[in-house]
Specification:
78% of the residues lie in helices and 0% in strands. The chain has one domain: MetI-like (MetI-like fold, Orthogonal Bundle), CATH 1.10.3720.10. The longest helix is centred in the N-terminal third of the chain and has 34 residues. The protein starts with a helix and ends with a helix. The C terminus is likely disordered. The chain is built from eleven helices and no strands. It is mostly helical and 231 residues long. The chain is globular and about 65 Å long.
Length: 231
């Protein structure tokens, strides 16, 4: 059954079946948008947490680590309450929209990116930053220097965040509603298609999910040695 579904799924992909390709486009747009927003927020926080020394740092680090394992369904429920018609943000009309899905996925990705980047920058030789400060650079400029010299850690953090949100289903289902031709993405499409017995379409979407995840990891593996060599 699995082999038959795989063969049918590949045929659907090659035939450009809109029932397969539209969820792919939604997944890519939503997940990439969430990652861009998350990276803009999380990477500076991660670098600052990794390099900084301040009161309460251990507590913040513990909170970030705990947030990395947030259940997607719980995040979806909380945001559903905020974005629903009776919620605090209900007037924005974001529930059951791709924008609402982006918000939910960004909430999941930010702790991952902060955690990965801060853990990496905690291992950085402090003499690099001290050298920059001794040469007259501001703390911000010194931190940017360290970040540029360890770009591979930032790439790894972004890739981890993308992997977290691209394969999740709870937030996408609750905030997107799995609306055909609008908010249905790969993971909700897999659940829907297999639930109604369309195994081939479910496998086709699963194949794409695996291929994209593999592509991100291959890109990371290709980028890391170059970044390490440059540093």
């Amino acid at each position: 059954m699995i082999l038959s579904g795989l063969a049918d799924g590949v045929r659907m992909l090659l035939s450009l079946d809109p029932e397969v390709w539209h969820p792919i486009g939604v997944s890519l747009r939503v997940s990439l948008g969430a990652c861009v927003i998350s990276a803009a927020l999380a990477l500076p926080l991660g670098v600052g947490l990794g390099l900084g020394r301040f009161r309460g740092r251990n507590a913040v680090r513990t909170l970030v680590q705990a947030s990395m394992s947030l259940p997607t369904v719980m995040v979806g429920l909380v945001l559903y309450g905020l974005l629903s018609r009776e919620g605090m943000l209900g007037e924005l009309g974001l529930l059951y929209t791709p924008a609402g899905m982006v918000i939910g996925q960004a909430v999941l990705a930010v702790p991952i990116m902060v955690g990965f980047s801060s853990a990496a920058f905690e291992q950085v030789d402090p003499r690099i930053q001290l050298t920059g400060l001794s040469l007259g650079a501001s703390r911000l400029r010194a931190a940017l220097l360290v970040a540029s010299e360890h770009r591979a850690a930032l790439v790894a953090a972004v890739a981890a965040g993308f992997g977290r949100v691209f394969a999740e289903v709870g937030v996408s289902m609750l905030l997107g509603g799995n609306i055909r031709g609008y908010t249905r993405n790969i993971t909700t499409g897999i659940a829907f298609e297999t639930g109604k017995g369309e195994f081939a379409r479910g496998v086709a979407l699963g194949v794409v999910l695996l291929v994209v995840a593999l592509g991100v990891n291959l890109l990371l593996a290709w980028r890391q040695p170059r970044a390490g060599g440059e540093a």
